[in-house]
Amino acid sequence: MECFELANGVFLPKIGFGTFQLTDAKTCEQCVGYALETGYRLIDTAASYHNEKAVGNAIRHAGIPRSELFLTTKLWIQDTGYDRTLHAFEQSLKKLGVDYLDLYLIHQPFGDVYDSWRAMERLYREGAVKAIGVSNFSSERLIDLCMNQDIKPMVNQIEIHPFFQQGDAIKVMKEHHVLPQAWGPLSEAQRDIFHHKILMKIAAKHGVSTAQVMLRWHYQRGVATIPKTAHGERMKENLDIFDFALSEKDMNAISTMDIGHSEIMDHRSPCTARQLNSIKIHA
Ligand code: NAP
To answer: What CA–CA distance (Å, rounded) separates 139 from 201?
Structure first.
């Protein structure tokens, strides 16, 4: 698996396996197990997905050396704050059954993120986590964090796909040596994207699927991805993007699909701030 090198020298696999909405423990364990068998080495989970235990079980059963795996989990809003972050981190480690994490992310740009960041800096310095970062941070929030904290986030995991290409946000991340990692890299299957005529035309030309075209497009833009699928064949397909290349004309054609905003979640809207802040993941 090809990797991106993060600002601190840690290597992050260019394609990982996403586990959002794999909430049924048995299904999640089976899917992650199969993903590992297929060749995925980065597994993306979150405390709020309620599947860290199932991910941990799959990892244990796979028998792959820990050093070959890249495990990401995320801190939920309810657990922000210095002490709460340290506690939530321990809980996640326990559920995953590991003694360190590869990447710990602040899941949302809400709550006491500055105290959380200081706790994460501590975990990083102590070696409990190899890299730290954020998720869903808009450019100005990211710059603020980068310019005011001792350790800059190494990753910002945000929504990126052909309908919401985030060109400006990616530029800012690259200027600050923050790796963009796309969630929803396949647009969460919205707007029947797998049958979009621009993608279908490019896919036919290269003899690949539209999902592969999208994942290759991310790859050529220097964006890491974590596609999710509950289907074994699609897991293989989504990893198999290294044997063809999109031309400049293909890339330009995909750039015309950008609608410039999210139809999944607008993190800047008061409604989203209220909604996400009201989600409690434990008592
Ligand atoms: P996604 O990966 O863009 O799309 C998943 C959808 O695409 C599913 O409906 C899946 O269906 C379908 N799919 C996958 N591969 C396919 C293929 N080759 N052909 C046809 N359909 C295919 O969306 P996502 O799961 O929201 O995002 C990926 C990961 O990002 C998540 O799992 C999670 O780990 C992370 N995430 C993070 C945040 C955040 O706030 N940080 C938010 C959302 C997601 P099947 O499963 O039926 O195959």
So the answer is: 33
